[in-house]
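One chain shown below:
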Amino acid sequence: MKLWSRYSRAFTLSFLLLLSVIGMAEFRSRWEWAALHELANARALELYFWAAVALFVGTSAYLVVEWLYRKWLAYEQLKHEYAQAKLALLRSQLDPHFFFNTLNNLYGLSVEGSKQTPSVILQLADMMRYTLYEGSAEFVPLKRELEYLRQYIALHQLRYQKEVEIDLEVEVGEQEYEIPPLLLIVLLENAFKHGVERMLNRAFLRIGLAVNQKELIYTVENNFDPTEDTRTSGIGLSNLQKRLDLLYPAKYQLEIEKKKDIFFAQLKLRLA
């Protein structure tokens, strides 16, 4: 039916164009002949000629506008598909990064012979399940993402033989919110890797998450040893920036600041 409608419309437009061209040629010659001989129907023939011109111009304009519209639709579809493909690529790059770090955490516990290793394996399995399955979703409940952050923090705390001050403050409320999965973990993982892991003592990590009806504010602050700092713009932060550009164009602010021995990162997302 759609195919027939498309051919029917094409036939109609072609017929109108042909009719207008024939009309312009026919009425122009008659109009000029009638005007030359001062016949009474010269005025009517002139009107017919301009009507044919208007039909030609109108049909041509419609065809041009339709062609441009179809080109625009094709471009928007291509842009959407490109964004989705790029986002899928970023996720595929991110998942092995998480696996590598969490498996290292489990290895550290097993070497220490911790009695909590079995329960940690279950916890790690839940984290991997989230990364593999829920991590491929477009959006997940914010509370599920927060639970993943808590599991990640708990897993690290079990490993340390040194004193580490970790403070997590959450102000979310009862309203349900959704965000892209594995979006918040990047800054936290970065703080552990380049801050807490390298500090011999007095390491601290402060995480804050506050949400209102219009905005999500996520902050991560940690100290680090300037003599041991090798922080670079690795795959984690690079992917975070790219994902934000794709998912929240012009709707986010990412501030990263490093002063002396303090690293501060803040992410703001507009939810409405």
Notes: DSSP finds six helices and seven strands in the chain. Strands lie at 140-141, 164-171, 178-179, 203-211, 215-223, 252-259, 262-270. The helical segments are 2-36, 42-112, 117-132, 142-159, 185-194, 235-247.
